[in-house]
Design brief:
The protein is of the alpha+beta class and 237 residues long. The chain has eight helices and ten strands. A hairpin with a 6-residue loop joins β9 and β10.
Length: 237
């Protein structure tokens, strides 16, 4: 028998609207937002019930093939929330916001990042792609502007001229990346989320996010792979 889903209140709706307009929200911000929405709407608030609150929203989003998902920032290991469209398996989610040529540049940037050793692509390498696009060639100045927009919209992150996928992008595109880059995309052996910036065991090939590597080896006297027990040859971040 099916249990009736809890009613969606104005507090739930307000929470969902803010999450959608943010693109991605850090967990501490989501907790504050949860409290604010409940208190504004004068509904029951409990500080440890954020997951239940989100589950209620997700039960109402299910028929719309949408879901609030939790993911981990590859930079600092903090949890984030984003609204994911499950019906769109392609990069089509972005199609309403960007032109075909911009999307092609994004896909090629994604290729460079995912196929790289460390989960980053240099701006030089990305800009060199600009005049090889099938849709039409893009001037480097134009490509620089487009990359800026991808960073502002939280699809890419940039640090010292190096680009990687933003936490928002990883949460929203996890399924797309896992199915389109089957040979190279891997999940972190510790937190089981998609790992773009990771260290990979030289013996058995498992990968771990840098924050997960840091956390896992903190308790070990000698860094050994959690799967094959071989010596972990990387510097622990």
């Amino acid at each position: 028998n099916t249990v009736m889903a809890a009613q969606m209140t104005n507090a739930h709706r307000r929470f969902l609207q803010v999450l959608m307009s943010n693109g991605v929200t850090e967990e501490s911000e989501a907790r504050k937002l949860h409290q604010h929405c409940c208190e504004t709407d004068k509904v029951y608030y409990a500080h440890d019930k954020l997951d239940d609150f989100i589950s209620t929203i997700n039960s109402h989003l299910q028929p719309l093939f949408m879901q609030i998902r939790k993911g981990i920032s590859e930079e600092d290991g903090r949890a984030h929330y984003a609204v994911v469209n499950l019906a769109e398996t392609e990069v089509t989610k972005m199609a309403s916001d960007y032109t075909e040529i911009e999307l092609e540049l994004f896909r090629k940037t994604m290729d460079l990042i995912i196929l790289s050793e460390n989960g980053f692509a240099s701006s030089t390498d990305i800009l060199n792609l600009a005049d090889q696009l099938k849709t039409k060639k893009m001037k480097k100045k134009e490509a620089e502007q487009v990359l800026k927009v991808f960073v502002e919209d939280k699809w890419l992150s940039e640090k010292n001229g190096e680009y990687t996928l933003h936490t928002r992008c990883i949460i929203e595109m996890e399924q797309y990346i896992l199915s389109n880059y089957q040979d190279v995309a891997r999940k972190c052996n510790i937190c089981h989320s998609l790992a773009i910036q990771s260290q990979v065991c030289e013996s058995c090939g498992i990968g771990m996010h840098l924050p997960c590597v840091r956390k896992y080896f903190r308790a070990q006297t000698e860094p050994r792979c959690p799967k094959c027990n071989e010596f972990w040859s990387y510097d622990i971040p």
